[in-house]
Amino acid sequence: MSIGLWRLVATAFAGILFFQSFSASEKAPNYSFMHNATSAPTLSYYDYIIVGGGTAGCPLAASLSQNATVLLLERGDSPYDNPNITNMASFGAALSDLSPLSPSQRFISEDGIINARARVLGGGSCLNAGFYTRAATEYVRQAGWDGRLVNESYQWVEKLVAFEPPLGQWQSAVRDGLMEAGVLPFNGFTYDHIYGTKVGGTIFDQQGNRHTAADLLEYANPSGLTILLHASVHKILFAIKGKTRPKAHGVVFRDATGAKHRAYLKEGSKNEIIISAGALGSPQLLMLSGVGPAAHLKAHNITVVLDQPLVGQGMSDNPMNAVFVPSPLPVELSLIQVVGITHFGSYIEAASGANFGAGSSSPRDYGMFSPEIGQLSTVPPEKRTPEAIDKAVEYMDNLDQAAFRGGFILEKVMGPISTGHLELRTRNPNDNPSVTFNYFKDPQDLQRCVQGIQTIEKIIESKPFSKFRYDYLSWSVLLNMTANAPLNLLPKHYNPSMPLEVFCKDTVMTIWHYHGGCQVGKVVDLDYKVLGVDALRVIDGSTFNNSPGTNPQATVMMLGRYMGVKILGERLAN
Predict the structure, then answer these.
(1) From CA 63, how far away is CA 561, in angstroms rounded?
(2) Candidate list 193, 211, 249, 513, residue with the active-site label
(3) Which positions ≥6 away from 569 have C-beta within 8 Å?
(4) What contacts 162, CB < 8 A, 6 or more positions away?
(5) By CB distance 3.0 to 4.6 Å, which of 262, 276, 437, 513 could disulfide with 318?
(6) To 10 degrees, the CA torsion angle through 207, 209, 211, 217?
(7) Residue 235 in contact with residue 288, Cβ under 8 Å?
(8) What's the predicted TM-score (pTM) here?
(9) Using CA atoms, how far apart are residues 516 and 493, in angstroms rounded to an integer?
């Protein structure tokens, strides 16, 4: 089939899916196709098996179910019965939950930075700050994506989960402060990635309810999709005998009781297994299945299916540095709504209100200040015994609510240029792998941080922001307050006499935008097919060389839809 004809078929097929997706749909959370994995048969067969019901996996499964049988395996639970996920006022509570069934699984990188990975249907869209913004046009071009289908796929996502946020006084002051700081022009409300200051979208509706990638399953064909929760995939099965190269043909997964199940692909040249387990889970699963650096796999007694030394390489996490600004006035509850997209390679964002420590819930949720969560806790991570946490909570409960009043202004380095790697620690897929991000290894990343912090200073000292800061708290005092908080496990060096480069290194945190490990051109091709094996793709943020836009979730959801349409288009054309 010619490229022109294929595009015609794919475009027509996308249009059909766009307008027909609701015809037999079900509304969240009442999905008849969602089950606990304990109810699964020990052996089953499907056209497509997707590992990971996250930000990419949900839209991918919904799209493929229109014309094929799909099994979606998710290691976590449903997001719908957890108010810590669904309510904006509870942001931070899910990240603070360290229980075995938490939707968030904490990990600490080898750099000493506290981080988290999702363990829930909907993935990171259930845990993040909700900001919805598209990738830059240049990003789309460099990725080799079809611009028209990209736009249609974004619209498909936005129809269900994206909203215009109500802008309160504090966010408005940040917006106006950005413009006074020279981050121009003002581009109004838009999903597009444009230089200047803008109001972006959010996945929280007007009532503060979160809408996640799991909501995109409303588009699914109920008769074509099976979702199994608490299904932990242990390995991909490959057929090797009589093959010129390994071919993926099944998976082994365990349910919550530990019982083993196997799911296989039906006969058919277009049937595939697709890994959408995230930037940690996808390279980890490839390695556990025998696809990775041979010496590393042999060290873990894993049979080598394909020596692929680039699996787990190119791991990146966009460094975030923030300044907490106490406010003499009450501020609205807000997560990320305004962003400054600078020409020097730093994105300026902000969040405020009760979710950062002034919660009215009982017991109070201290969000970023929580003794458990790590990022602005008064208890250093290495000293977080149950007794120390209880003592800190008791102390904080006795503080006036005004002690937590205010907000964060943060900068995130684009890209980044610095990269690291991921390795296995154990053969258990539920254990975190070892990951190193090498924050600020490249001096250009560090310089972008410095310029971002300098821009934050201009915002705080701007006229529009003046009523939300205490005059007696100078810029150096604000920096010192942040520098003295146990944000990470790194040794502290900064004092006001030192350059901002030291502040950036000492106070670096994650904004949870880590990516890489299965990158395009290194581990997968432009169609996200794993190089060197057949019937296996990786479709998620692990394939990215750089983080898209200011915040990646919109593009990860778009990619799930985009590739679902492309794969079904190929199936139909064949």
Answers:
(1) 6
(2) 513
(3) 6, 9, 10, 13, 14
(4) 132, 191, 201, 202, 203, 554
(5) 513
(6) -100
(7) yes
(8) 0.91
(9) 30
Divide the 574 residues of the chain into consecutive groups of 10 and give the mean pLDDT of each group: 45 47 72 98 98 98 98 98 90 85 94 94 97 98 98 98 97 98 98 98 96 98 98 98 95 98 97 98 98 98 98 98 92 94 98 56 48 46 56 55 78 98 98 98 98 98 97 93 78 86 94 97 98 98 97 98 97 86
For 485-509, give one letter per residue: b (16+ CB within 10 A) or e: bbbbeeeeebeeeeebbebbbbbbb
Distances (CA, A) of 84 to 216, 264, 367: 20, 36, 11
Give me the residue label for tokens 């909501």: 215
Rounded CA gap, 410 and 29, in Å?
A: 34
Active site residue 513: yes
| Other C-beta atoms lying within 10 Å of the C-beta of residue 271 | 20
Question: What whole-number distance in Å separates Cα of residue 115 and Cα of residue 509?
Answer: 8
In one-letter notation, the amino acid at residue 1 is: M
**Which three-class secondary structure state does DSSP give residue 404?**
helix
Contacts of 295 (CB under 8 A, 6+ apart): none
> What percent helix, strand, coil does the chain show, rounded to 5?
35, 20, 45
User: Cα–Cα distance between 191 and 159 in angstroms, integer?
Assistant: 13
Residue type, 57: G
Q: Quick one: three-class SS letters along 130-162?
A: CEECCCCHHHHHHHCCCHHHHHHHHHHHHHHHC
At 195, the amino acid letter reads Y
Report how far residue 372's alpha carbon sits from residue 352's, in angstroms, rounded to the nearest whole number: 20
Beta bridge partners of 346: 413
Nearest to 222 by CA among 355, 23, 407, 389: 23
Give ∠ CA 234-123-293 in degrees, rounded to 5.
Answer: 40
Q: Cα separation of 204 and 311, whole Å? A: 35
